[in-house]
Amino acid sequence: MPSLSVFGAQWGDEGKGKLIDLLAQDADYVVRYQGGANAGHTVVVGGQKYVLHLVPSGILHPAKVNVIGNGVAVDPIKLLEEIEGLRARGIVVDGKNLRLSAGAHVIFEHHRLIDQCAERWRGEGRIGTTGRGIGPCYADKAARTGLRVCDLLDPSTRRARLRAALAEKNELLLQVHKEKALDLEGQLDQYTALAERLRPLVGDTGKEVRAAYRAGKRILFEGAQGALLDIDAGTYPFVTSSNTGPDGIAAGASFPPRQLDQILGIAKAYCTRVGGGPFPTELDWEKEGTPGWHMSTVGAEKGVTTGRCGWFDAVAVRYALDIAGADGWIVTNLDVLTGFPEIRAAVRYRVAGGETRDWPAEASSVERVEPVLTSRPGWTEDITGVRRYEDLPAAARAYVEWLEMEVGTPIRMLSVGPDRSQVIARGLKPW
Ligand code: IMP
Q: pLDDT of 229-277, one tens digit each?
């Protein structure tokens, strides 16, 4: 099994960073294919915490090749900050272990500004974007007005395309958003210097990854965000602007879809969401002492995110794994549920005219569903030190097996704490 796709099966923040870091131990290549610095993958190794935004999670292992594919929206400022931050902590980052696609689109200052301004105009319909310029960059890609890394590296293309882009964007900033215009020469100087620092990393990464696969190397595709934030499959318009699951790999990594050998989803044992949009199983997470508050506090969801928490939603995860054609899935943050007298999960939705196990096609319909919740008894034992499935409390095993049955896809691993070592394998054969 030399190629493996790992993706989020909820609304992001499922704990992918840790799992990808773990699976990267036996991979040769770790490839990002979508999203940008809107992602934040947290990896804890030996008590040291690393938060990665654009650099693939395999960077913490020596001798892995980490690839930022053509489908990623690359902010050169953020990428270079991240690289310097890693180097300052003694991690080697060079053109051998970090590769950047010449075809990746570049996020400029105007993308970030327009992202933040557009949110103001949306008012109540605010998406709650990360403000990192992701949407406007992908919009320009689709409108064919964007600049790719290769355009940024070529002086005449860079000047011509940035001039044309800023002519339009400055009008938008001035007239519509009442902001200051950006100076072409200043932007050219700044981004030229950044591009030169990135040049040693740049190449035809699609070709490199396809050749590696043919040579029998193990390729791990690292999804960012989650399936329910996917621009096509998610709760549109409350989504990100890329294809987050294995659906994004063919286009975003220039990798043939028939060569994808195994697909694994990742979901928390409960559910969280950042920003706006429907969330059928959402709980009150601000009232102290409630289950939602407990998830938000013990799961450290506050601060990293807005803190929105709720029960596990089997309808949503079933849908996410179904469209991805997942072979299995991994449950994270099981330890956060320790101490709950009873644990609930949505197994169906109540909709006009009855009940359904199916995910509704539109975000507006998701807003109207009522989750049908069922419960199982909780456990009180600390499970953070458990490493074998049979050593888990019977109630924890019953909960896991219930989720597996409701979702209908095998659970291959459980995560019971933030460290790389805090996992319980359940027949996972990634390679
Ligand atoms: P954008 O990707 O910044 O445009 O934001 C669009 C939506 O996706 C917002 O609701 C964000 O909060 C959400 N989002 C983007 N990246 C992540 C992530 O890595 N984890 C969780 N939510 C995210």
A: 999 999 999 999 999 999 999 999 999 999 999 999 999 999 999 989 9
In 3D, which of 264, 271, 273 has the Cα closest to residue 239? 273
Tell me, yes or no, whether 248 and 115 share the same domain.
Answer: no
The CA 224 to ligand 1 mean position distance, Å, reads 9
- Please report, for the domain that includes residue 409, its CATH number: 3.90.170.10
Query: Atom 5 in ligand 1: which residue has the minimum CA distance?
Result: 129
The answer to whether the pTM exceeds 0.90 is yes
Q: Domain of 126: which CATH number?
A: 1.10.300.10
Q: Is 294 a catalytic residue?
A: no
The tally of domains found in the chain comes to 3
In-domain check, residue 431: no
What spacing in Å lies between the alpha carbon of 131 and ligand 1's midpoint? 9
52 in ligand 1 pocket by Cβ < 6 Å? no
**Measuring CA to CA, which residue among 340, 345, 269, 278 is closest to residue 313?**
345
> Residue 203: what are its φ and ψ, rounded to 5°?
-170, -175
**Annotation marks residue 419 as catalytic:** no
Residue ending a domain, choose from 146, 175, 199: 199
Q: How far is CA 270 from CA 49, 336, 387, in A?
A: 23, 9, 21
Structure token digits, residue 261: 């050998």
CA of 72 to the centre of ligand 1 (A): 14
Domain containing 144 equals 105-199
User: Is 281 domain-assigned?
Assistant: yes
